[in-house]
UniProtKB/TrEMBL annotation:
Signal peptide: none annotated. It holds the Pfam family SAF. This is Flp pilus assembly protein CpaB. It comes from Vogesella margarita. It comes from the Bacteria. NCBIfam families: pilus_cpaB.
Length: 287
């Protein structure tokens, strides 16, 4: 009975072990991951990659299984060590390395000069979004005769992506960096506005929330609004009042007709008459 019990116990252990192995065993597939931290815009080399077993049921979409397919490809986002290399993180085939690989299709990279104040004390880092504020003069008021201040500040561009600060494009850093130049990602139309804005006034960067893409329409701020809270009214031309007509007294002498000589010996006296015109009225007085 003891021997039978031992045999039954061994069989139970073996069966339980097999059942546990079947439950825990999961099919795996080789997937390419980053062997080191790789910055965006970098070309991938075999030394940067390695193959690992990845559970077949949780392989992310676009995962690469052949390291040779990644030779010479360029990353458009930063990848950390142990992170899977996905097709969505790669620039199109034939792309050269550098910042140009990071610029989205249809957009451009443009650099503006900044300082510690204009650059938000160095907090405008790659990957952040900023608004562009310009301080200039309003030439539309220059032709008025009234003495007004022509200064105006206006937001001309909103939700602009910062691609790089100085010569660094890494988006993993969170420490502020005071630099003298910032590279922005803009559309061709935004590039024209930005170029004109920096030529007519002083630019400032306004850091905004990364998850707040909502645009805000503003009319700009002038010195008059800033100090008094309202726009200075435009000068109103004084109406020209026509002068009242002045009535002139015109005296017109009218020669009276002399009466025909009477048959009688006595001759009647001839009267002297004068026509008097006053405004629109006229009358004749005789004396």
């Amino acid at each position: 009975m003891i021997v039978v019990s031992i045999i039954v116990g061994l069989v139970a252990v073996v069966m339980a072990s097999q059942w546990i192995n079947k439950q825990t065993s999961v099919s795996a597939q080789k997937v390419v991951i980053a062997a080191v931290d790789v910055d965006l815009g970098s070309k991938l080399t075999p030394e940067m990659l390695r193959l690992v077993d990845w559970p077949s049921g949780s392989i992310p979409d676009g995962a690469i299984v052949d390291p040779q397919a990644l030779d010479g490809r360029v990353l458009k986002t930063s990848v950390l060590r142990g992170e899977a290399i996905l097709e969505s993180k790669l620039a199109p085939l034939g792309t050269k390395g550098g910042l140009s690989a990071v610029v989205m299709e249809g957009k451009r990279a443009m650099t503006v000069r900044v300082n510690d104040v204009i650059g938000v004390a160095g907090f405008a880092l790659p990957g952040n979004y900023v608004d562009i504020l310009v301080n200039t003069t309003d030439d539309a008021k220059a032709n008025t005769k009234e003495k007004v201040d022509l200064s105006i500040s206006k937001i001309v561009l909103e939700h602009i992506l910062v691609l790089a600060v100085a010569q660094e494009a890494s988006r993993d850093d969170t420490k502020p960096k005071v630099v003298n130049a910032v590279t922005l990602e803009v559309t061709p139309e935004q590039a024209e506005k930005l170029d004109l804005a920096r030529s007519v006034g002083t630019l400032s960067l306004v850091l905004r929330n990364q998850v707040d893409p909502k645009p805000v329409e503003t009319s700009g701020i002038t010195k008059q609004i800033l100090l008094r809270g309202e726009e200075e009214p435009a000068p109103v031309a004084k109406p020209v009042v026509a002068s009242k007509p002045v009535a002139k007294r015109v005296v017109k002498k009218v020669a009276a007709k002399r009466p025909a000589p009477a048959k009688s010996a006595s001759v009647a006296a001839t009267p002297n008459c004068v026509e008097i015109v006053s405004g629109t009225s006229r009358h004749i007085e005789c004396f």
